[in-house]
C-alpha cells in the first residue's frame, strides 16, 4: 500500500523554518546589541580615561598657576627689597657727602675765587661767590668737570661789581654731585 502522509507537513515545515528564522534573527540581534554595547563600553572607557587625564592636567596646571603667582609675588618682594637695599647703600655712600663736598671744593677752588655762599638741595650745590677774573672761574669749572665728586658745572650768572675796589665779579653757579639720588629718604619712604 502506498504511504500517504496526511499530516500538514508543509505547515509544520513552514513553522519550523519560521522558528529557525526568528531564532537566527534573535541571535543576530542579540549579537549585534552585544557588539554595540561592547564598542560603546570600550569608547566610553577611553573617553572616561581621557577625561580623567584632562582633569589631572587641569589640577596640575592650577597648582602650577598658584606656584607661578607665588613666584611672581616673591620676585616683586625681591625687587622691592633690592630697591630698598640700593637706597640704603646710596644713603651709606652719601653719609659723608658734606665733608666730601667741602674737601673737594677746597681742592678745586683756585686762588682768586672766593666762595661767599654754598647751598645744597638734593644732589645739586648752588655756589655764590666773587672772582678776580673770568680765567679763574673757567679754571674752576674745568676742575669741577675733572673732579670725581662733581659734574655739570653750569654758571648761572657772572656780573661785574663796579663799586668794588678790586673790580671783583660776582658769580652764581650750579654743580651736580655725581652718584647721588635727589632725595633718598623720600624714595625709601615711598616704598
From TrEMBL:
The chain crosses the membrane at residues 21-43. It holds the Pfam family PilN. InterPro entries: Extracell_DNA_Util/SecSys_Comp, PilN. Residues 47-91 form a coiled coil. The keyword RNA-binding does not apply. Keywords: Coiled coil, Membrane, Transmembrane, Transmembrane helix. The keyword Lipoprotein does not apply. PANTHER family: DNA UTILIZATION PROTEIN HOFN, TYPE IV PILUS INNER MEMBRANE COMPONENT PILN. This is PilN domain-containing protein.
